[in-house]
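Batch job 17 of 40 flagged for manual review because the log was empty.
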Amino acid sequence: MKNSRRTFIKLAGIAAAGLALAPRKALSAEGHEPVKVNATAIHAKHWAMVIDTTKLNTPEAIDKLAAACHHDHNVPHIEGKQEVKWLWHDTYPHTFPEQENPHMAEGVEERVFPLLCNHCQNPPCVRVCPTKATFQRPDGIVAMDYHRCIGCRYCMAGCPYGSRSFNWGDPRLGLDLGNLNPEFPTRMRGVVEKCNFCVERLAVGKLPVCVEASEGAMHFGDLTDPDSEVRKVLREKFTIRRKPSAGTEPSVYYII
């Protein structure tokens, strides 16, 4: 018994010495390994989206984009009150409840509108999250760290747009396992999820999947760049945003 204990201690000592002598990677000035940036990534100081609802105005057209988004991000298909959604559609009164009038044009009043996370400049969801599972990136995107989410749903209560979904059950049970996107992680039970402006696609030089599939009805770009596509569209078209009185400053604009 004593011999085996001595052998264990000896081996542990050798292992520790090996770790101490192992070559180390070069560190940055802050003491961290340098981050490698994908050469094809696209960047912005503040990402924003403009949606032309005169072109994207039917349930079928919006459902097509939602299907592409949900497939790309392995969003489970669950019917009923436990539905999980990143992109969906709703009516004008539900989309713009503060901007109605009794004599609206029928074409606008009867139209449906695509909805998603607004990636607000002043996101209340970020302020109320106790674990910083939801946070705002330097480029304005409101992101989620699923591993830090404890399922308290404070962010859902803080969001005035209903843009977040909670996984009440195992979301993998609502997936077509033979048709998963292996490049995006599936989630677990008990976490909140939502649209992420396709950060994983931006990192490899691609636009959000809904923008690519919209055939010109959705525009995406840097809100701080006067020459960006979104700024050009905003100069030329009248747009509104959802619930302006909330003071969140949404980054999603709608051409009406």
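Reviewer: the log was empty due to a logging misconfiguration, but the result itself is present. DSSP finds nine helices and ten strands in the chain. Unflagging and moving on to job 18.
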